[in-house]
């Protein structure tokens, strides 16, 4: 008797799960969200994808957004990052970081995101880069804007498009304004590369926070000289 009824109950569960997915909007779905057998979940999600009711992001992750004539609209980069990363210390890298800080007008084809851990595989319009050695970012619970600042300070000559004096002034003002937390940046800097540390020390000093600059480990003289040559204080 129990064996005969099991398929019927499974069909009912699948129908309820289908209704729940179709009634949702702007959310991710994973197999674990559905209380069904693995084979039933696999069939259900695959069928909804085939019908353009779900968009497959990667194995085990689907998106239910807005339907368009071209199919299901993808999630925003911000929602993708939120779904695929956990914890603090995650933020823009490369040109995405420079653009976020208004130091460049270039917008990369794929958003670049730095993760203070092993990077997830790329997904959609997001490319992840690992910063596993820079553990201070997570420990200091940096915001995305603070991560962007450290990323730019590490690769300053390649990323800054505006005049160097303007870029230096903008970041100094960010430190003064409190939009980025100078104390947290000083704490996180202990695991940053030498050039980033040297530039951060100089900016903290210019922002009137020599006390925090002294907490950032100094780079060797050669690295510091090369890093400071690309800043322009007026």
UniProtKB/TrEMBL annotation:
Q: Which InterPro entries match?
A: DUF6088 (IPR045738)
Domain of life, per lineage: Bacteria
One Pfam entry for this protein is: DUF6088
Name-wise, this protein is Transcriptional regulator, AbiEi antitoxin, Type IV TA system
Q: Which organism is it from?
A: Cryobacterium shii
């Amino acid at each position: 008797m129990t064996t005969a009824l099991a398929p019927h109950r499974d069909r009912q569960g699948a129908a309820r799960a289908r209704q729940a997915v179709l009634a949702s909007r702007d959310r991710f779905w994973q197999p674990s969200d559905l209380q069904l057998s693995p084979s039933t979940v696999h069939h259900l999600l695959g069928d909804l994808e085939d019908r353009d009711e779900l968009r497959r992001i990667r194995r085990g992750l689907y998106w239910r957004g807005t339907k368009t004539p071209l199919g299901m609209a993808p999630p925003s980069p911000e929602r993708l990052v939120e779904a695929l990363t956990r914890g603090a210390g995650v933020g823009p890298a490369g040109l995405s970081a420079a653009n976020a800080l208004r130091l460049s007008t270039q917008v990369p084809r794929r958003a670049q995101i730095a993760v203070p851990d092993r990077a997830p595989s790329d997904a959609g319009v997001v490319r992840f880069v690992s910063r596993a050695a820079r553990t201070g970012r997570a420990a200091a619970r940096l915001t995305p804007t603070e991560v962007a600042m450290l990323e730019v300070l590490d690769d300053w000559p390649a990323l800054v498009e505006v005049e160097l004096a303007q870029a230096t002034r903008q970041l100094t003002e960010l430190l003064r304004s409190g939009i980025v937390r100078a104390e947290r940046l000083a704490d996180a800097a202990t695991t940053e590369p030498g050039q980033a540390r040297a530039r951060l020390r100089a900016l903290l000093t210019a922002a009137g926070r020599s006390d925090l600059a002294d907490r950032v480990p100094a780079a060797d003289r050669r690295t510091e000289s090369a890093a400071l040559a690309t800043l322009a204080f007026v």
